[in-house]
C-alpha cells in the first residue's frame, strides 16, 4: 500500500477581514510564507508542510495556521486534495496536497507575526504565488463566496457579538460588491440566523447600534464527514 | 517532503439507480468489493487502491470504477480526503484515502461483473462495511442528497433523454421519499433545467410521454478547482 514517490502535504488558505479599506471598511487578507529556497525562491506560498505520520489532517492544518499566525482558526474546513502530476516543479517528486481553508477573527488578525518571512497580503492584490497556489487561493475564494450565501461562515470573521453593519461589511469584503443596507438587514433578520443580544455597541454615539449574535439553534452549516457541523472549532 | 509511514489510496463510492423497486421504480445501488484477506476478510469494501505515482487522482478513481464495473462514470467528483489516525486496522500503517463519488447510467449498471468478489448491493440494505467505509458511504449519500437539489447531477443517472417521470423517479430514489408529480413537474420546467426534445417515448401507449434532455446552456453545476463544471465527464 506504500506509494514511495508520492509525498503528502497539508496546506491552509487562511482568510481574515480587516478594517483597512476606505472609511475603515473591511478587506480580505491572507497570510503567506516567503519561500527561502528553490523552487520558487522568494515567491509567496501557502503555509503548510508534510503530513506528520502521527497527526490528523485537520490538526496538521490547524498547526500550520498557528505556526504562521500565532492564532487559532475561527472556522476550518477541508477544501480539496490537489494531486496533479505536474504540480511540483521537481520532476523526481510528486506532492499531493490536502488543502484546508480557514477564517480568523479580524481583531486577532491585526497582530503582526515576528517572522519576516510571513506577511499578510491583500487578496485583491496578490502577486503570482509559488507552485499552483494562485489557483488554490482562487478556488478557496470561490468556495467562500458560495458558502457565505447559505451558511454561518461570516460569523467566524467577527467576534462573538456584532452589529448588522459589521456583518454586512464582512459579506461585502468577501463578495467584493456593495450590498443594499436595508435589503441586507431585512434578509438577515428574516432568516432567523442572528439574534438580538439586547445590548448595544458601547461608544459615544447618540443611538448606538444593536449587537447581534448568531443563532446557534439554527443549523445553517454544512456537515463534515464526522457529523460535526462546521462552525466554531478550536 | 516524504512521509514514509503514510500510504495514499484513492477509493470511489459509485451510485446507480436501478429499476428494481415495486412497479419497476428506481432504487439506489452501489458496487462493492469483497475483501479476500485480513483485515476485515469477507467484508465488503469500496473499490480502490494505492495511488500510482504516475496517475492523476481523478484518473485513479475512474480506473477503479472501470475495473470494478467495466463502465465509465456519468459523473465523478472528489468527495473528501479521510485521514484519521485510527482508520487502518493495522497499527504499523496509516492510510489516507482520497475518496471520489461517481454515478452511472442505470442501463449500464444492470450488467453483472464476472468477478464473484464484486457485487451490487442496495444502499438501503448495506451490511457493515470494512474499515470506515460505512461512514464514507453515509457521507457520500449526504452529499448526493444535498447536491441533487441544486445541480444537474440527477441527469447522470439517466440516459441522454428521459421522461419527467424517470427524472422524478431518480430524485425519489436518492431522497428516499415520494415527490408530488405535479409539483415536481412544475418546478423542473420552471427551473429551465430541462428542454423538450420534441420526441416522445416509443412504445405502445396511447399517449406516450415527452422526452426531455438537460439544458446544457444552464450552468447549475458546481465548479471544480480546474474550472471545469462538473457534468458529463468521460
From TrEMBL, chains A, B:
SUPFAM superfamilies attached to this UniProt entry: Nudix (SSF55811), Winged helix' DNA-binding domain (SSF46785)
Signal sequence segment: none
PROSITE patterns tied to this protein: NUDIX
Gene3D superfamilies linked to this entry: Nucleoside Triphosphate Pyrophosphohydrolase, Winged helix-like DNA-binding domain superfamily/Winged helix DNA-binding domain
A Pfam family annotated for this UniProt entry: NUDIX
Domain Nudix hydrolase intervals: 5-145
Domain of life: Bacteria
PANTHER family in alphabetical order: ADP-RIBOSE PYROPHOSPHATASE, SLR1690 PROTEIN
Entry protein name: ADP-ribose pyrophosphatase
Species of provenance: Kocuria dechangensis
Taxonomic placement: Bacteria, Bacillati, Actinomycetota, Actinomycetes, Micrococcales
Amino acid at each position: 500500500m506504500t506509494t514511495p514517490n508520492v509525498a503528502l502535504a497539508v496546506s491552509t488558505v487562511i482568510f481574515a477581514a480587516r478594517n483597512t479599506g476606505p472609511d475603515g471598511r473591511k478587506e480580505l487578507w491572507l497570510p503567506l510564507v516567503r519561500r527561502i529556497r528553490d523552487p520558487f525562491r522568494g515567491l509567496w506560498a501557502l503555509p503548510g508542510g508534510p503530513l506528520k505520520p502521527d497527526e490528523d489532517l485537520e490538526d496538521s492544518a490547524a498547526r500550520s495556521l498557528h505556526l504562521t499566525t500565532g492564532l487559532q482558526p475561527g472556522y476550518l474546513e477541508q477544501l480539496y486534495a490537489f494531486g496533479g502530476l505536474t504540480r511540483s516543479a521537481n520532476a523526481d517528486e510528486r506532492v499531493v496536497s490536502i488543502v484546508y481553508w480557514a477564517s480568523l477573527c479580524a481583531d486577532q488578525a491585526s497582530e503582526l507575526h515576528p517572522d519576516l518571512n510571513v506577511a499578510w497580503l491583500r487578496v485583491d492584490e496578490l502577486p503570482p504565488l509559488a507552485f499552483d497556489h494562485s489557483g488554490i487561493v482562487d478556488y478557496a475564494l470561490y468556495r467562500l463566496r458560495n458558502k457565505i450565501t447559505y451558511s454561518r461562515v461570516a460569523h467566524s470573521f467577527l467576534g462573538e457579538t456584532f452589529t448588522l453593519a459589521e456583518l454586512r461589511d464582512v459579506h461585502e469584503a468577501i463578495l467584493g460588491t456593495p450590498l443594499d443596507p436595508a435589503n441586507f438587514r431585512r434578509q438577515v433578520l428574516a432568516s432567523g440566523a442572528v439574534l438580538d443580544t439586547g445590548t448595544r455597541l458601547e461608544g459615544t454615539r447618540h443611538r448606538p447600534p444593536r449587537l447581534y449574535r448568531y443563532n446557534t439553534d439554527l443549523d445553517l452549516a454544512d456537515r463534515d464527514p464526522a457529523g460535526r457541523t462546521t462552525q466554531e472549532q478550536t
